[in-house]
Amino acid sequence: MTSDRASVMANQEQKPLISYRSVENYFGTWESRAGYKLVLGGTRHHGYYKAGTRMPFPISPALRRMEDHLYNTLSLPGGSEVLDAGCGVGHVAMYFARKGLRIQGIDLVENHITWAQRGIKAHGLKDQVSVRLGDYHNLDHISSNSLDGVFTMETFVHANDGHKVLSEFYRVLKPGGTLALYEYWHISDDEMPADLPKHISASAKRVNKYAAMPTGELLTKGVLCQWLKGQGFTDVEETNLSENIAPMSFFFYLLGYIPYLIICFFGLQEYFVNTEAGVQGYRGLKRGLWGYASYKAKKPSNVGESSSEAGLRRR
Residue 135 has what DSSP assignment? Predict the structure, then answer.
């Protein structure tokens, strides 16, 4: 594992890639470790609820429904080779493997890979799932035109250079391959309500900073679709899932409200970024300041391209 970390660091020195130290720091805090383990059972994504649902319980079936939504978005046959770009401890990768997909997972956090490998072995899925340390800005270990699908589940926001990441996803996909991204969006500063308290916008910037989400700062509504088209992807589809995650967002709000009051009193927001995100996130979701969407795109079956299209992908 040390040699893998050295390889990732060497690639970092060659070009401006993801700040893995910031990501590790975020996922390594006791708040993140305890929260993801105790509240979400180790997963790192929202649950899916039928529109109009108010209560978030039970949590586990909602998490599986979101994974099923992603699986259906990919819509790939059994045996398809798929990259989980930011696999965490491997929950989604193993779930998809049980459905018949062959998954390659990468993650920047060493502990995540260790736990994922243990889970894969314990569930007898070593033939269907492989995981390794890796940075989705640089997928040199994966051949061009080799994968049927690529997906992220709330991990693209951690990219330092979203265009570079999408370019790598495009490269490794086979012609006709499918990309699925499940990510956050927010309205632009110009669209912010005039009466919006300054502390709310300051909170959003603080969350993006301390949760290591530099691309999250850039993903205003509609931008990701533009980026995908700019990289040469076709059949780009965006599905707004904001209402479908609202019950879980409300749960995070209730869970964090009292602790957040104490945290704000002592000025400790940067040390409890998940608590702040839970409380202010629900408030922002209700006001339409941010949302959650799935994005589906295809690599064209005809790999021929004009020089201008090639230039866009090399940005």
Answer: B
Tally of residues, the chain: 315
Residue in 74, 65, 126 with CA at minimum distance from that of residue 97: 126
User: The whole model's pTM is what?
Assistant: 0.90
SS3 68: helix
DSSP code at position 278? H
- Beta 129-133 vs 102-107: how paired, if at all? parallel
Place of tokens 């978030």: 56
> Alpha-carbon torsion 226, 281, 181, 237, what sign?
negative
The Cα 279–Cα 257 span in angstroms is 6
Structure tokens at 52: 């109009």
At 150, list the tokens.
């690529």
- Bin 235: left if φ > 0, else alpha if -120 < ψ < 50, else beta: left
Q: State pLDDT tens for residues 7-61.
A: 554 444 444 354 556 888 899 899 998 999 899 988 999 999 999 999 999 999 9
Please calculate the CA angle 24-206-219 and round it to the nearest 5 degrees.
85
CA atoms within 13 A on the CB side of 124: 1
